[in-house]
Specification:
Pathway: Purine metabolism; GMP biosynthesis via salvage pathway; GMP from guanine: step 1/1; Purine metabolism; IMP biosynthesis via salvage pathway; IMP from hypoxanthine: step 1/1. The protein has 178 residues and is α/β, with parallel strands linked by helices. The protein contains four helices and nine strands; from the N terminus they run βαβαβββαββββα. Strand 2, helix 2 and strand 3 form a beta-alpha-beta unit. It binds xanthosine-5'-monophosphate and magnesium ion (MG).
Length: 178
Amino acid sequence: MHNDIQEILYTEEQIQDKIRELGEKISSEYAGRNPLVICVLKGAYMFMADLTKRITIPIEVDFMAISSYGQSTKSSGVVKILKDLDVPVEGRDVIIAEDIVDSGLTLSYLIDVLERRNAKSVSVVALFDKPAGRKVDLQADYIGFTLPDAFVVGYGLDYAEKYRNLPYIGILKPEVYA
Ligand code: XMP
Ligand code: MG
């Protein structure tokens, strides 16, 4: 598995340091509230687990699974909810935890859904951002790392469902795609 990686962009330690910072920031900005942190499955599962450990205020967690139709490495913007939230978001402060923002289409769809359900507030924490891929005007409220416009795997992110369990984020060797 490690042999398939061309370059490690951020190590496990760098990721954990960044997540600690994000957790501290969210904890202070949401002090006195009880936000619902929503994990967007599957890609954000690892980030969700590590981030919520670094949030020091009371929170609740929930999970949503979505799929976007189209090619496997590009978002089409047509999003389908495979698993919905267990709890209503009406009147709640909601924080969406995402692995990566690329075109922004998935998140803009999700934000729209949550706002139509009358969430009190909706913010986004994304561990990775690929601004070069953006198709809609969308900026996450909290961002871990800005990445170059390459397809990345590891730390929850997959290629054909593999590599999610790498503890770091890296670029796949081109021959793996072939
Ligand atoms: P959009 O384009 O809607 O996409 O912002 C967000 C979702 O697309 C996936 N994605 C990636 N997955 N390596 C991956 O493994 C990548 O480089 C990559 N770029 C986008 C991801 O599921 C994300 O939630
Ligand atoms: Mg995802």
